[in-house]
Task: inverse folding
């Protein structure tokens, strides 16, 4: 069974909770790369705090916004 995009869709964005995804260049051990793009599902980006190792009590909003913006920028570059 293979996953396909809905008609007319090219890329998608996903949102999950902290500790759900590992970020890195190794497609075997990590779910997304530094641009927040999925290794397994072409065109899927995670633009939230899901790559954080935990949901700590410290204020992480600016880091989340920066990572989200980077992922959104890469998403837009790819879809121009």
Result:
């Amino acid at each position: 069974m293979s996953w396909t995009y809905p008609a007319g869709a090219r890329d998608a964005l996903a949102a999950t909770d902290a500790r759900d995804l590992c970020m890195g260049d190794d497609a075997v051990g990590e779910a997304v790369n530094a641009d927040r793009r999925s290794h397994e599902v072409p065109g899927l980006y995670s633009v939230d705090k899901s790559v954080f190792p935990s949901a700590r009590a410290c204020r992480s909003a600016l880091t989340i916004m920066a990572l989200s913006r980077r992922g959104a920028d890469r998403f837009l570059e790819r879809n121009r």
Observations:
- The longest strand covers residues 12-14.
- The chain has one domain: 12-78.
- The radius of gyration is 13 Å.
- DSSP finds one helix and two strands in the chain.
